């Protein structure tokens, strides 16, 4: 019952409803609260003025919120009537239950009448504080709203059930709290008195015992009030209008607006709606039961999460402590090496100090002796020993000059700790899936017999090993950039075959595949080396192209099919997508399947049908070019559009270089895309049409055409000589396994 309390409280005052009324939006308000939130509207919005102008027929007219901005529903909480000063801007309030309330623009006039009988200001309107729908009151004011007597009864029963606990009526001293009530005896019993005075045997066994609260409600229930008609206050409701979905009296059927409506007996509709509500409650009860079970599951999850968190934290602390211990052990080992180096350096330096000290003492003694000999005045005696002393002095001096005065050890420690790998590992230390539910899938096997290249496209096929028992949820195909660079993902999915378009011509690509499932990814397959076809690449010349015949000697003619996947829906394909026309009189764009990003490329198209009126356009475009306008209208296409007399170049809707000479049925259009020079040139019937059309073109381009229903265009296949009998097909030698 406590969970129902919010349903029984007014959204304005936050208290239990007092004399609740029902608004047309089905929400409820206290009658006094409804009067408090009334606001006055302009004269032009009144029901009388609307009826006079013939613009309204309803008793309660909802306001046009576009004409009158009544208290904005935005979070600012402010609103105003636009255009008149009688309703100043007033901040909204919030009721205790959080619903926004719109206060009146002016205080209600003082009156001694009850809220139901007090006069309502002329042209008043009320806004529902829950759905914010506004409506203008008619002459009846608040009396025009029906009273919700059912809600009043529910509130009475709820308040009675919340009252103080009932006492036993048979206790002689200090009555105890009653636990049951006998509906037949109309007496409240505690458990001891029930066992003593109302044993469950004999005639008393047939009595119905109910909880005290239910017994009090059944005892105190007052006779049901009969609701009266809002239009005819002296008449009781006797029928139910099916069209208006409201109870009515017999005068409403004879005189009022319900006279022509379908009506049914009030009691029958009461029982029918009770049955419908009960059926709806059954479904809602099932949802509530499921919600309770779900809440129990969530609460159990909270407990389990807390337990798992404690366990995981302990495991994490233990792992980190193990790392710290290992680091401390390594630290001790490194410190031992440093101490060893320290002792070695000290020993070498101390030995050198000892050696130099002895030698210095000997040198000093020799010097003092020689000085004393020099002081002697006996020439013959001096000459007898001078040669020997001179040799000793030179020998001693030479001994000091052989690195004796150079330190045998440096003071620096020739040790440098390389901790960058460890720091990087620490920074990369992260969580992985601790408990694998199943092993990773096996490494896929490339099916070499189905792998091939065609023009600048590559098709790869793979499969799982025959004896693999672990299913794969999908595969990841990776290719490098054609220059030995890093691999990048080009396909992720469940298929076991993939065609990659838009590769560079005359380039070598490395491809590899791996499988994955929920546990992880497999090892990479062997690397497959793919060689795209030579296409139209050649060494560029320094001189400009003047004769198309010379160009055809230098390069092959590119051949492609049109792409239905990226074309406008009005484009019609035939001849294995080599021929296109259009079902619309408007220009529509279609692209070729082959894209070019480097090298020099030339292709031709023939005009199969032309009635001398339309302006078909030929050129190149990005993949995201607009498909419903002429080619060259946007900045994603570079084109030449031509009629039967002249042609123009167009890019980004800019027309340049008008050139005489047009097309007719059977004409051949040539397009030369030189991505080495970044130029685009056009030809008509093997003759260059105008100057170089565009310069500084770079990126990925697709052949493109725009046409309407009066034009049909086909691609011209290359004229390739027959291959010798012993030659190997290009697709068969377009790949090899990297050893």
Written overview of the protein:
Residues 539-725 form the B30.2/SPRY domain. Keywords: Cell projection, Coiled coil, Cytoplasm, Cytoplasmic vesicle, Cytoskeleton, Metal-binding, Phosphoprotein, Repeat, Synapse, Transferase, Ubl conjugation, Ubl conjugation pathway, Zinc, Zinc-finger. Residues 163-212, 224-266 form the B box-type domain. Pathway: Protein modification; protein ubiquitination. By secondary structure, the chain is α+β, with helices and mostly antiparallel strands. A hairpin with a 4-residue loop joins strand 23 (571-574) and strand 24 (579-582). The longest helix is centred in the middle third of the chain and has 109 residues, at 266-374.
Count of the domains: 6
Radius of gyration: 50 Å
CATH topology of the largest domain: Jelly Rolls
Secondary-structure-based class equals alpha+beta
Give the strand content.
15-25%
Mean pLDDT across all amino acids: 79
Based on Cα principal axes, name the global outline: flat
Provide the helix percentage.
25-40%
Count of helical segments? Answer: 10
Number of strands: 37
Query: Describe the biggest sheet?
Result: 8 strands, antiparallel
Enzyme class: transferase
InterPro entries: B30.2/SPRY, B30.2/SPRY_sf, Bbox_C, ConA-like_dom_sf, COS_domain, E3_ligase_FN3/SPRY, FN3_dom, FN3_sf
Keywords: Cell projection, Coiled coil, Cytoplasm, Cytoplasmic vesicle, Cytoskeleton, Metal-binding, Phosphoprotein, Repeat, Synapse, Transferase, Ubl conjugation, Ubl conjugation pathway, Zinc, Zinc-finger
EC number: 2.3.2.27
